[in-house]
């Protein structure tokens, strides 16, 4: 009879694994999909809000990179065309910011990978979290309880993150009436 230790040699009782960033886990999972679309790596998709501003990133998505056919005598790969899917209003902004987008994408790749940006006017796919439930506002006593749990000595960036997390957890649950 085999045990779990035979099937998974990395699993040992009492051995704790270090926490890994979610980006390290998701990155390899989307690499294949990105390669099928002409992206050398998934960074252009995952870092799109940093390449364009976050407001424009909500209206647009990088679709693919169209690479030109290799010709005999080419020394190396020739730059391709980045195809960006966006809505009508975002198309004008993307075409206006094309030189900046090209510069940032090329800086991301570390070589002249893109020479043109082509805009395809279609609405971008909906956000993955658009089906999430809306959080209810916290009652004053819930907000005070959350602030007391965080404490005043917590550094500001950590306190802000903990406050967002606490509001998400408390706001997702139904409001409890105080017991009398």
UniProtKB/TrEMBL annotation:
Superkingdom of the source species: Bacteria
Region Disordered, annotated ranges: 122-142
Pfam families from the UniProt entry: DciA (PF05258)
Protein name as it appears in the record: DUF721 domain-containing protein
Species name: Pseudoxanthobacter soli DSM 19599
